[in-house]
Amino acid sequence: MILPIVAYGAPVLRKVAQDITADYPDLQKLIADMWETMYASNGVGLAAPQINRDIRLFVVDSAQIFENQEDDEKGQYADEPGIKKVFINAHITALEGKEWPYNEGCLSIPKIREDVMRPEKVTLTYLDEQLKPHTETFTGITARVIQHEYDHIEGKLFIDYLKPLRKKLLQGKLNDISKGKVRVDYKMTFSK
């Protein structure tokens, strides 16, 4: 089932999400719905706060980025061909490497894209969809998507990385998003 995505301004996007336990109700259905919602919205990642759940759960499919690359872009990133994974109760244990810019967007902040600096490597502990524990290091584009989605479960948004002046210049657009004055081709809910 395609779920509505929560727009900028909703309080859930600013909450630190809670770990969940194995008895979380309908977890497998929720994960399936998140994949369906993400693909229907043309996203490469989706975090539970974006569908109005304050839990530490996000899904990432960075493989789509590589599948849609132009031929001259192929081989630029060490993490090619990307991943498709579920992250439950994720906690970052290390951020390493040089910070590099990449133009990011967010399904909860439609029609705004900005360059964001992030480290090239992220190591985190997490549970997969079978609730098996992992500690894994990711690099490149995949590391960036994971950091972006991880920020959602920490109550952060990519615009928080922008310089104050740039954020101030975007404030009108952000206000319009929070009031529902933006058209998107996917289901959204607005806090108004």
TrEMBL record:
It comes from the Bacteria. Its cofactor is Fe(2+). GO terms for biological process: translation. Binds 1 Fe(2+) ion. Its EC number is 3.5.1.88. Belongs to the polypeptide deformylase family. This is Peptide deformylase.
